[in-house]
Input
Amino acid sequence: MSTDTLPATEAAAPAASAPGARNTLRAKRRRNALRTLAFMSPWLIGFGFFFAYPLVSTVYFSLMKYDGLNPPEWRGLDNWTYVFTSFPQFWPALQNTLWLCVVMVSCRVVFGLGIGLLITKIKTGAGVFRTLFYLPYLAPPVAATLAFVFLLNPGTGPVNSLLEALGLPAPAWFNDAAWAKPALTVLAVWGVGDLMVIFMAALLDVPKEQYEAAELDGAGPWQRFRHITLPNISPIILFALVTGVIGAMQYYTQPIVASKVASGVMGGSGVTFVPGYPDDSTLTLPQLVYSLGFSQFNYGAACVIALVLFAFSMAFTALLMRRRGGLIGSGD
Amino acid sequence: MTVSPTPPAARTARRKALLRWIAVHSLGIAAALFFVLPFVFVVLTSLMSDQQALTRDLTPDTWHFENYTKVFETPGFLTWWKNSLLYAGLGTVLVVVSSIPVAYALAKFRFRGRHLSLLLVISMMMLPPQVVIIPMYLFWAKQMDLSGSLWPLIIPLAFGDAFAVFLLRQFLLTIPDEYVEAARIDGCGELRTLLRIVLPMAKPGIAAVALFQFFYCWNDYFGPQIYASENPAAWTLSYGLESFKGAHHTDWNLTMAATVLVMAPVILVFFFAQKAFVEGVTLTGVKG
Output
């Protein structure tokens, strides 16, 4: 594209050096700049007001003692040392996030790829299957979580009835610290429709000739998958992994609703809800921002957690943007 | 095929193909059961009596369709419904209107800082909402005195949503520059080019953005929890649903009926706009 326009700009250069032409050129450039500014203005305001300003403000509050009532007091790095050394829920939340990044994200990617492969092989009723596979992704998270707490409830839930009928162990899922995260993983895998669509599109893009050539060479299904499919779709797998990790950082609604419903501590019952039930096993960093900021009114410490969250998210976003021909690929 | 006698090789090949068809479709059915059964159990439970919902029974003995009217008669439920529609409806309109010009500039204008702007849009898109929530809450609650309402969630949507901008830009990139340049040469101003030439071609992209935004607002739990929790009259369905469970803690049947009522609009919308939706997912993920 740029090589095409090069001769044109060279040809235009001598003409532009005439004083009148230069003035019109400058006027045109200014008009263009104003036009760009006008088109970009909604976002520029939004960026300044809902991103840059609050981010700076978060850094400021992370160095203050502030409860929303008394004026902020300078405390230096006190909030930071408090969060890292004495706040008991920080490390469990970080550990849980790591668990989610490793187990939940890889389960979703493997399962999403499997379902994507399956849907490309289905010949009869593919449209119906695709819709059915995709639907759970659309279920509102609060509703889906509530449904799964019911389905997986240890006493009368249909899943455990089924497991017992088959003679399999029936765990307490959301009521057992060892099983709460696996239960959330089942919920996340259920909503794998987004990845299915992405993988499906990628799989259909793999050149058919490569498969035909491999088949002629006598490659079996596994070898074809290993040497043709995987290399072709590896950028998409990386994309799914990284966006999955970014999603895991933000994981909030499902664990908080699951722990509230499973613990039986609900709004209006008068008992203060402590997030992470059972035994901190479902704590994540965003929940700590909420509980520090909005139940304990320790805005300083909440801002420290917010900045930790920010650092992680931006690190993975940078990874995503470095991907060759990736997220922002063509047109640049 | 009937003319030449079928060689044994062709017959085994055909049998292999049939076996593969059976294997693939049985796997497909098994997967479909995994995806669909949770919905089925939820709906079945929503039609049980109070007592039966506490047992291990999977299907209702008697069908209690009145559970759904009971849910609607619960104080607040209709208000939450209305609030969800307001938040999602108004939010979607605002996001679409404010994001289109930004996406157009990023896709079709050449200017200094374009690349940087795009990087910042993506950073904003990936930013967890909790990162900036403390200053934002202090601003809306203390300075604007708007806590206890959904306005702190709706107003920012009038200033372009990063995800919408990004998705629309991806879509606009697929519209050849020649159309835009032809319109410019014909003396069409940028705004008219955008409105008359580009927008009609960008309808699928706009539909996808609108759907995503509607679903995002409808499903949002964190936002209403921060700004509306103190005032039940401002709750949305997604936020109210959880307290519904709290108020009916033994009535799984009513809770599941409410759950169905929260899921239903989203699924209905999907059936009418499936294509735009799937296209949107693909666009943000695969096509660069």
Observations:
- The beta strands of chain A are 64-65, 73-74.
- The two ends of chain A are 10 Å apart (CA to CA).
- Chain A has 14 helices and two strands.
